[in-house]
Design goal:
The protein is built from 2 helices and 25 strands. With about 325 residues, the chain is mainly β. Strands 14, 15, 16, 17 and 18 form a 5-stranded antiparallel β-sheet that branches. The chain has a 4-stranded antiparallel β-sheet with strand order 1-25-24-23. The protein has a 4-stranded antiparallel β-sheet with strand order 2-3-4-5, with no helix packed on it. Bound molecules: 2-acetamido-2-deoxy-beta-D-glucopyranose (4 copies).
């Protein structure tokens, strides 16, 4: 979540978004198109096994869904969470069951009101969703992305962008613990600058927690282990890449891994960067500008906030869905 109030003033038609422009920086190597223009800005995305996309907004307490296989589909409300103005992270932590973070967020300071952050579970396995509050996080001001932990279906991890660390929520007991904190997860300035933002655990024996830090502009990882049911860091943080460009400030947000272990990183103000691990597993990751550009002049990709691979069939699985702060949902053909 890196939110720019300016975008609220934007009013963009789908025609304007898809119109070709001349004089753009070098074209993207991957074909990409906006498949939906939402009137609410979008913050996070998850794909269901059925292919349907789940979408959260920094400016709405409603969880939305869209079927990306339908041309000109409609955004439908799944559930509206009480006592909240924003939904940030969403992740599937058990089959068909998603964790969603609700809060009341001040869109000037980007701080959540103390006492407003609640971790919810929404079970979409039956026609009518079952919604349960897992726990409240009364001291958290920077609720952001969440991730599941392979092999530990009760554990959900949440990035705290302001405290610079990671919360563990146990979905069975409803207990929350602040389990990892590191200088690499803090922002260098107070909010609205945000530190750790996106996070994903990769099953790599030992597991590794990968995260972006928006203000520091990095992708990093830390090995983790589970001890007595609790996650802890099992090593020092390793910075894998610094997202930079010669002429613009680059601020990474959320990201998605593909099957080859490459990270597709949304980068403010207007790009998706493809970060690939070094062939011999040591050294810095390489970077390619996959979609958009560093100066944010691509009208199809305005303040990208999150990305997720499609699911449900082979075509969907090679498609990366990117959501933006201007309400765009873009489909990127990652095999192109
Ligand atoms: C989808 O919407 C676009 C833009 O409004 C329109 O040009 C197109 O005909 C629509 N496609 C279908 C299948 O309805
Ligand atoms: C919402 O907040 C009000 C006032 O603090 C409280 O009484 C109510 O129980 C809350 N609702 C839920 C579902 O948490
Ligand atoms: C958000 O924070 C700013 C700065 O502290 C404050 O002036 C403003 O009133 C807050 N907005 C809301 C809706 O509380
Ligand atoms: C492995 O990576 C390191 C660091 O980038 C580099 O110095 C080394 O030459 C690489 N070795 C091989 C065999 O590619």
């Amino acid at each position: 979540m890196v939110f720019f109030p300016l975008i609220l003033a934007f009013s963009i038609s789908v025609q304007a978004l898809t119109a070709p422009r001349t004089g753009e920086p070098s074209p993207s190597p991957f074909s990409a198109q906006v498949i939906f223009q939402s009137s609410v800005l979008l913050e996070n995305i998850a794909a269901r096994a059925s292919s349907e996309l789940l979408l959260t907004s920094f400016a709405s307490p409603t969880l939305f869904t869209l079927d990306p296989k339908t041309t000109n589909g409609t955004l439908s409300a799944v559930h509206t969470f009480p006592n909240a103005t924003a939904l940030t992270g969403i992740t599937e932590y058990q089959p068909g069951v998603f964790a969603v973070i609700a809060s009341v967020i001040n869109t000037t300071t980007f701080r959540a009101a103390l006492g407003s952050v609640v971790v919810w579970s929404i079970d979409l396995n039956s026609h009518t969703p079952t919604v349960d509050a897992l726990c409240a996080l009364p001291t958290v001001e920077g609720p952001n992305a969440v991730t599941a932990v392979p092999g530990h279906p009760d554990i959900i991890l949440m990035a705290d962008s302001i405290a610079g660390g990671v919360w563990q929520i146990n979905a069975r007991t409803g207990k929350a613990r602040f389990v990892i904190q590191d200088a690499s997860m803090l922002p260098n300035r107070p909010a609205p600058a945000l530190g750790i933002n996106g996070l994903h655990v990769r099953d790599a024996a030992p597991d590794a927690l990968y995260f972006s830090n928006s203000q520091k502009g990095i992708l990093a990882r830390v090995l983790i282990c589970v001890e007595d049911g609790n996650i802890r860091a099992a090593g020092a943080v390793e910075v894998l890449a610094t997202i930079q460009s010669a002429d613009a400030v680059q601020s990474p947000d959320d990201f998605a891994f593909d099957r080859d272990g490459r990270a597709w990183m949304t980068v403010h103000p207007g790009a998706v960067a493809l970060l690939s691990p070094p062939v011999n597993h040591s050294g810095q990751w390489t970077q390619l500008n996959a979609v958009g550009n560093a100066v944010g002049s691509d009208p199809q990709l305005i303040q990208p906030t999150s990305a997720a691979f499609g699911r449900g069939n082979a075509v969907q699985e090679q498609r990366l869905y990117v959501v933006t702060g201007a309400g765009q949902i873009m489909a990127v053909d990652t095999k192109a």
